Amino acid sequence: MTTSHPRLRAALLLAGAAGLTLLTACGTSAPADAVEQQIVSQLGAATADCPDDLDGTVGAVLTCSATDATGSFDVTVTVTSLTGSDIAFDMERVS
């Protein structure tokens, strides 16, 4: 599945709670709203809120909050690689 946005390209490579997603970074980070959009799109959340932009450093971790029909939950976002201005990251739903 691919989503287009002026500064955003996403490709879900793994099904389920965790997936690898690519974002085009602005400088050395990906905007929080772009990460939130991917949480909603890829994990089926109704809402998502990230406290900061995603740092474009391999190993960087960002914890976001989200909601769905069953209630609220956290999502751990971990940067896995960088290619040019693309940030690849995994998302995992946690309790």
UniProtKB/TrEMBL annotation:
<dbReference type="Pfam" id="PF14230">
    <property type="entry name" value="DUF4333"/>
</dbReference>
<keyword id="KW-0732">Signal</keyword>
<feature type="domain" description="DUF4333">
    <location>
        <begin position="25"/>
        <end position="83"/>
    </location>
</feature>
<protein>
    <submittedName>
        <fullName>DUF4333 domain-containing protein</fullName>
    </submittedName>
</protein>
<dbReference type="InterPro" id="IPR025637">
    <property type="entry name" value="DUF4333"/>
</dbReference>
<feature type="signal peptide">
    <location>
        <begin position="1"/>
        <end position="34"/>
    </location>
</feature>
